[in-house]
């Protein structure tokens, strides 16, 4: 066994066309005495989850503040995780407001959610928003991982055309902006993301590897099996168990993606969907979430964004008994039946988010869990979808940020407190401090 020497944190299982990053093992830390400290201190990960069309705020906002609050209907799926989340009320996204630019609330909401900047009203090539908080973080800490950041989503988008009252589709589809004029496109296909995470550096070998797996129905794990067995024989019992659990997680995700692809080939040719994208929306969300967890676990990235649906989405939720379009229902006009359907959509999204958080909380890292070192934001750039307001947004912050955040509370901030103040506070924690982001006025207190 490896006893007197450390295994480098960047150790990967290698095979033909394959490089599989490993989770943090005890043998990777300087000593058993430091293992707990390393796990508690980091590395910190941050991710920003976005849902469109606001929320039914009456069933989102807890009545009481502090730690003695009850979760409303929409947030009930998070009950087992209540001690791991902060409900943040009162935050505002001023740059999603018209501010003289007329209609286009949906486009502005997504474009400004992480930039806190007013999007230029145009449906041409001269788009402009601002650098998003995730990309600020990637500039500071991205060099430490294989991928400076990951951008995920369930809806493809276009960077041209008019999608909302004279605003380019680039605004409605992109939450991450590498520069003020360059959005970062989302990866929506679980298969393509899987290949990115576990591909080797030799492009010719990568292509042949994938061909062989498709032709001979092989697993990507078949190509690293020898390396995994060799490494496993040198590890202690605890690390062998952790390695086996990680490999099992990779195998499970790969099998689910393959099952989706096999099902897709049996469907009618008219189905305009890449083979790696599930027909089941919930499974699509969960597959991408599981891949993000593997990326965090292998320290492939520490920064991510995840857009459940593009802003203004009119997706049907027939699978949960809501066949009408989401955006249409969000303009409910106080119709009780439509309000009930909107809150079911909101609850469905929260249920998928709870799945992700639970997986983070159950995934070990050193002596702790991935959620201990995470800061996960979930929310929308619209408050009430019917009112199209951009104050008192539905915002959650989950995880403990390496011990810098005290979750399990509902905090109500003063009206018009910029959402960007939260972003600055998170940047401070991941060694990416900047003096200002968009319309920020300072750091968000009491986290």
Structure in words:
By secondary structure, this protein is an alpha/beta fold. It folds into two domains: 109 residues, no CATH class; 307 residues, Alkaline Phosphatase, subunit A (3-Layer(aba) Sandwich). 34% of the residues lie in helices and 16% in strands. It has twelve helices and 17 strands. It has a seven-stranded mixed beta sheet, with helices on both faces. It has a two-stranded antiparallel sheet with strand order 1-2. Strand 8 and strand 9 form a beta hairpin. The chain is globular, with a radius of gyration of 22 Å. About 2% of the residues have low confidence.
Condensed summary:
By secondary structure, the chain is an alpha/beta fold. The chain is built from twelve helices and 17 strands. The chain has a seven-stranded mixed sheet, with helices on both faces. A two-stranded antiparallel ribbon has the order 1-2. Strands 6-7 form a two-stranded antiparallel sheet.
């Amino acid at each position: 066994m490896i006893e007197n020497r450390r295994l480098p944190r960047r150790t990967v299982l290698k095979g033909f066309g394959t490089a599989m990053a490993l989770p943090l093992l005890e043998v990777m830390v300087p000593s058993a005495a430091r293992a707990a400290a390393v796990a508690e201190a980091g590395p910190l990960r941050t991710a920003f989850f976005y849902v469109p069309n606001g929320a039914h705020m009456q069933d989102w906002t807890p009545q009481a503040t502090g730690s003695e609050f009850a979760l409303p209907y929409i947030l009930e799926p998070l009950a087992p995780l209540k001690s791991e989340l902060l409900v943040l009320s009162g935050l505002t996204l001023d740059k999603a407001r018209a501010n003289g630019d007329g209609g286009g609330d949906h486009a502005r909401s997504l474009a400004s959610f992480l930039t806190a900047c007013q999007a230029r009203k145009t449906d041409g090539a001269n788009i402009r928003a601002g650098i998003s908080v995730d990309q600020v973080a990637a500039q500071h800490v991205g060099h430490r991982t294989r991928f400076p950041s990951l951008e995920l989503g369930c809806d493809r988008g276009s960077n041209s055309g008019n999608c909302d009252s004279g605003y380019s589709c680039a605004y409605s589809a992109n939450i991450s902006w590498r520069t003020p004029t360059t959005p970062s496109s989302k990866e929506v296909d679980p298969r393509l993301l899987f290949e990115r995470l576990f591909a080797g550096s030799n492009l010719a070998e990568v292509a042949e590897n994938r061909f062989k797996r498709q032709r001979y129905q092989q697993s990507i794990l078949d190509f690293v099996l020898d390396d995994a067995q060799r490494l496993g024989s040198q590890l202690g019992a605890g690390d062998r168990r952790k390695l086996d659990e990680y490999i099992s997680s990779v195998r499970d995700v790969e099998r689910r993606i393959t099952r989706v692809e096999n099902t897709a080939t049996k469907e009618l040719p008219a189905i305009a969907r890449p083979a790696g994208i599930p027909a089941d929306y919930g499974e699509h969300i969960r597959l991408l979430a599981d891949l993000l967890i593997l990326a965090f676990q292998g320290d492939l990235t520490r920064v991510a964004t995840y857009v459940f649906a593009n802003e203004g989405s009119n997706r049907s939720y027939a699978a949960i008994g809501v066949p009408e379009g989401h955006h249409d229902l969000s303009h409910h006009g106080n119709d009780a039946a439509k309000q009930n359907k909107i809150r079911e959509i909101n609850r469905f999204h929260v249920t998928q988010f709870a799945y992700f958080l639970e997986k983070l909380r159950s995934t070990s890292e050193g002596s702790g869990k991935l959620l201990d070192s995470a800061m996960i934001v979930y929310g929308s750039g619209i408050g009430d979808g019917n009112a199209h307001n951009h104050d008192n947004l539905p915002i959650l912050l989950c995880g403990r940020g390496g011990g810098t955040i005290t979750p399990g509370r509902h905090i109500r901030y003063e009206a018009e407190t910029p959402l960007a103040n939260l972003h600055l506070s998170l940047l401070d924690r991941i060694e990416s401090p900047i003096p200002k982001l968009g319309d920020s006025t300072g750091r968000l207190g009491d986290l």
